[in-house]
Amino acid sequence: MTSPGGEIWFAQAEAGVRFEWGSTGATMLEARGGCLFVVDVLSFTTAVTIAVNMGTAVYPFAGDEAGAKRFTARHNAELAVHRRATSPERPWSLSPAALSRAPAPPRLVLPSPNGSTIAAASRGTVLAACLRNATAAAKWAVGRGFGSPQRPAVVIAAGERWPDGSLRPALEDLLGAGAVIEALRAAGCPCSAEALAAANMFAATADVAGAVRSCSSGRQLASAGFAEDVIIAAEVDVDVVVPALRNGAFAASL
Q1: Per the omega criterion (within 30 degrees of 0), is the bond before 87 cis?
Q2: C-beta neighbour count of 45 within 10 angstroms
Q3: What is the per-residue pLDDT across 179-225, written as a single tens digit (0 to 9) for each?
Q4: Is 168 in contact with 122 (CB distance < 8 Å)?
Q5: CA–CA dist 154, 151 (Å, integer)
Q6: Which of 95, 127, 182, 235 could form a disulfide with 199 if both were Cys (CB 3.0 to 4.6 A apart)?
Q7: 8 A C-beta contact, residue 99 and residue 47
Q8: CB 104 within 8 A of CB 56
Q9: Domains of the chain with CATH codes
Q10: For residues 230 and 223, what is the distance between their CA atoms, to the nearest angstrom?
């Protein structure tokens, strides 16, 4: 997958800030010595930000339910359940609203088919970013020397899934990624054309919260009774916590 000149055409290698979609994009752009931002606004990285802010270490997981239970037992953790399956005994799910009200366990396994799957497969410096902590996450990365072609900041919009399992690019993740990239650009980091387009999209959106509420994913969650999750996820730069993946779990990075 190289051009006639020998370059890897998809790598955005000339840029310090790079942007792609989904698990495949993360695999193809992940760079040695770089920093990977996973952006899954509705709702994995928003939920991670909420939970980590409450003192919980969050383990991403990719796999089936039986595997998740074994993984949870090995780590002496609690396992998040589906939004509709929460109970007083098991109040943890991908719902940011539910997590904000639940007791904070020391360790929580939080599976999801998009953001969690990408994070679980990634190596090196991995951050959970969303609209709530976009600027804080960008500042954290810049402060540690990321954002150059030699130490790139790779921003991955997780996206959602169509019924056939293929990637559905999701507006909320484009906006979340754009918010991170706009903060990196403001700090002077050179951006690829793909990254600039995402940043420009965010900067040109006058009502980000309204866009998230009215986009397909927001409407889907609201119609299922989880409008509060959408409201929480649509808040911009209200958190300063930066969840970083260490020893398999996201924890607050100082």
Answers
A1: no
A2: 36
A3: 999 999 999 999 999 999 999 999 999 999 999 999 999 999 999 99
A4: no
A5: 9
A6: 182
A7: yes
A8: yes
A9: 17-252 (3.90.1560.10)
A10: 11
